[in-house]
Automatic annotation (TrEMBL):
NCBIfam families in UniProt: TIGR01244 family sulfur transferase (TIGR01244)
Family matches, as InterPro entries: BLH_phosphatase-like, FAD/NAD-bd_sf, FAD/NAD-binding_dom, Prot-tyrosine_phosphatase-like, Sulphide_quinone_reductase
Domain called Beta-lactamase hydrolase-like protein phosphatase-like: residue spans: 5-110
Organism: Roseibium polysiphoniae
Pfam family, one: BLH_phosphatase
Record's protein name: TIGR01244 family phosphatase
């Protein structure tokens, strides 16, 4: 007997023998569903035999036979009804368990997100790709299976990467029929939120309507993606609409997993708990900084990867700078709670950053990962995993805490055929083309190239994807390569920035001569770049296909 758990109420299994029913009962199951018709295999016990053994073991049992490959909508409805009626947990079986998993998937389609269904069945060892359209259609067979729309290029995600690559494609080949899929009404300049939390920008300056930014001639499909069908060159939308593509670009950004920290969602925006990773909370950060005159301020950083790996400490530096200027720094204890073991991943920038750690008298606590928070009690719980030490938990009180949430690929990416084992879109790190599907590319935070996840990285990636995609349309080999460039303007004080620019392997990739901006040292010029130049470059150049300082590097042959 091999019970594969899907939920706490249901496990599925390949064919069992009558003698297995005692073990089924001993494992705590209270009911059994048989989804395999009698006579399907020569070595298969009849339902009558299974039923008799189940009753002896004190189990309730239901016979819902389904012919292999012919799971009907009525079958799924009946399975769902049985799950409601039978004592739980339930043990369901067929020849391999696939029919039982399929029935559950279709029965749950109206109450669970598609990605959750796919994730649970995948974890149990069952691939529901063959019924994903039915799941997206509320568990019912679609009446129309042809595509609802077709485009030369479909782009999933209208963030920095998606709009930039659409504009770069249009600039290269204006006759392309391009669609961007994204349900959001508002587009945010997220790099500005650190400055909002430091009292430099106003939140409204970082937001524009999505419709005002979609490039002219590009179709905007205002919907969420449910699943991918790369073998059919199709994207399935919520509601089971199907969009076909000649080529696909995937760049939906990251999911901020606030729920992974116990108690965090309930206390965000109050009790001194804030985060610059959310538009509506960044102003609260500045409010807390302005009003805190004494006490303990915590700044957290979760395990990598996260977008803008310097953002957690940027919040610390700008806060410390304000408290120093206001004369309150000596009454405030600043602590940086970092799940990792280093201050910054590229060692060349660490000396300058350490100078500011000392300036603000901040305590560095490495290998400290935030796992729970009690807002009313103003207590944060950290799991401490120091090398060669026993894992332990500690509680730390706070008057203010800036939380950087754990971050993962979106659910519909992690469970898709496009993802690697860790859940990221699997690409060649130079060409950004998918390793298994030749007509798919990815950029931005969701792909698995080992680069920093920043808007500056997307600015360099978009022309690479556009250049290589157009080359593929024209029957040519990839022309451009991405060197891993990323930039992190570390706001160490108001008026000065350590401009970290680097590529794969931590190689320094400065954009300016050192006499203008030496990125390893705090610079007023870098602050001017961050405050005055980068926002208009983002809105008026990057998102409009003007590749200022972002022309793609040619592929090296040999």
């Amino acid at each position: 007997m091999e019970a594969k758990r899907i939920t706490k109420h249901l496990s599925v299994s390949p064919q069992i023998a009558a003698t297995d029913l005692w073990e089924v009962a001993s494992q705590g199951f209270r009911s059994v569903i048989c989804n395999r018709p009698d006579g399907e295999g020569a070595d298969q016990p009849t339902f009558e035999e299974i039923e008799a053994a189940a009753k002896k073991a004190g189990l309730e049992i239901r016979y819902l036979p389904v012919v292999s490959g012919k799971v009907s909508d009525d079958d799924a409805t009946a399975f769902g009804a049985a799950l409601e009626e039978l004592p739980k947990p339930v043990f369901a079986y067929c020849r391999t368990g696939t029919r039982s998993a399929t029935l559950w998937s279709l029965a749950q389609a109206e109450t669970r997100p598609v990605a959750d269904i796919l994730e649970r069945t995948k974890a149990a060892g069952y691939d529901m790709a063959g019924v994903v359209r039915r799941i997206a259609n509320g568990g019912r067979t679609p009446t129309e299976t042809a595509e609802d729309a077709r485009f030369d290029v479909v782009i999933v995600g209208a963030g920095a990467g998606g709009i930039a690559v659409a504009s770069s494609l249009k600039a290269r080949k204006s006759d392309l029929e391009i669609a961007i899929i994204d349900p959001a009404d508002i587009h945010y300049y997220q790099p500005g939120w650190t400055m909002v939390g430091g009292g430099v920008f106003k939140a409204a300056e970082t937001a524009k309507t999505m419709g005002s930014l979609i490039p002219s001639g590009v179709h905007w499909i205002k919907s969420a993606v449910a699943a991918f069908e790369p073998k059919d060159n199709a994207v399935v939308l919520d509601g089971c609409r199907v969009v076909k593509y000649g080529r696909l670009v995937v760049c939906p950004g990251l999911k901020l997993d606030w729920h992974k920290v116990e108690g965090l969602v309930d206390t965000l925006g109050k009790n001194g708990v804030t985060s610059n990773y959310r538009y509506d909370l960044a102003p609260y950060t500045w409010h807390l900084v302005k009003t805190l005159k004494t006490g303990r301020a915590l700044f957290t950083q979760p395990p990598m990867p996260i977008k803008c790996a310097g953002a957690p400490q940027k919040a610390l530096y700008l806060s410390g700078d304000h408290w120093k200027r206001s004369g309150d720094l000596d009454k405030i204890n600043i602590e940086f709670m970092n799940a990792g073991g280093v201050l910054f991943g590229v060692k060349d920038y660490v000396p300058a950053l350490m100078d500011y750690v000392k300036r603000y008298d901040a305590k560095l606590n490495f290998f400290h990962n935030l796992v729970a928070i009690d807002g009313p009690a103003r207590t944060a719980t950290f799991e401490v995993k120091e090398p060669d030490q026993k894992v332990r938990r500690i509680d730390v009180g706070f008057d203010m805490i800036h939380v950087t949430p754990p971050q993962v690929a979106p659910d519909f990416i992690r469970v898709s055929p496009l993802a690697d084992a860790a859940g990221w879109v699997d690409v060649d790190q130079a060409t950004l083309r998918h390793k298994s599907h030749d007509n798919i590319w990815s950029l931005g935070d969701v792909m698995n190239a080992p680069n920093a996840k920043t808007a500056a990285a997307a600015r360099k990636q978009a022309p690479v994807v556009a250049e290589n995609l157009v080359a593929d349309i024209e029957g040519r080999s990839a022309l451009a390569q991405y060197d891993g460039y990323g930039s992190c303007p570390l706001t160490v004080e108001r008026g000065k920035i350590v401009l970290a620019e680097f590529g794969y392997g931590g190689k320094l990739l400065p954009s300016f001569p050192c006499w203008l901006i030496d990125g390893t040292k705090p610079s007023k010029a870098a602050w001017l770049l961050k405050e005055r130049l980068l926002p208009p470059i983002y809105w008026k150049a990057m998102l409009r296909g003007k590749e200022w300082m972002a022309k793609p590097e040619k592929v090296t042959v040999g």
